[in-house]
Amino acid sequence: MPEPTKKDEMPNGQPEVWSLGEGQAPEELDKPIETPPLSTLLIEQPQSATVSVGGDASFIAKVEAKDLLRKPTIKWFKGKWMDLASKTGKHLQLKETFDRLTKIHTFEMHIIKAKDSYAGNYRCEVTYKDKFDSCSFDLEVKESGQGSQNIDIRSAFKRSSEGQEDAGELDFSGLLKHREP
Predict the structure, then answer these.
(1) Among 3, 12, 17, 52, which residue carries the largest CB count within 10 Å?
(2) Is 113 in contact with 91 (CB distance < 8 Å)?
């Protein structure tokens, strides 16, 4: 039985070699690579903030609307899933404005009289038809300078004077006689 022969050449006389491509020309290496903008809708993203306990914080997101036919939808979240739209009230306010001259939608979230529990990661999501944009930011709530007033609650319940163990019987009948019917 004859041994099979190995084909090293293609029918046109060229050797059979695998190639990964031609590579880039040296002129193309110097060109800056054009990257699309990271944000498709947001032109200004909310920035992380630090407030003291009882302080106020504001977060602002802006969307350019010159190519949009209607208002985009914005959602504010705390953590991964908690939608803040249902939590608005005394300590959380959401505001939306539109500037007709510049055609910019401004979305604001105001946290009023911050508490320790308000600290954490927040997220803002903007959607318009098939476009979607999201950004995260943090709120850090620091203890205010009033932490030096360490009050021992037990001291408020201590007896004010060293009395006798048995102060005697108390007579409540006098109090009960003078009560209102």
Answers:
(1) 52
(2) yes
Predicted local confidence at residue 21, as pLDDT: 62
Count other Cβ atoms within 10 Å, centred on residue 106: 15
pLDDT tens digits along 5-27: 655 555 666 666 666 666 666 56
d(CA 93, CA 85): 9
Q: How many Å apart are CA 82 and CA 102, to the nearest integer?
A: 32
CATH superfamily name and code, 42-142? Immunoglobulins (2.60.40.10)
Rounded to 5 degrees, φ, ψ at 28 are -75, -20
Domain ranges of the chain: 42-142
Greater confidence, 62 or 13?
62
Question: Given the structure tokens 């039985």, which residue do they identify?
Answer: 1
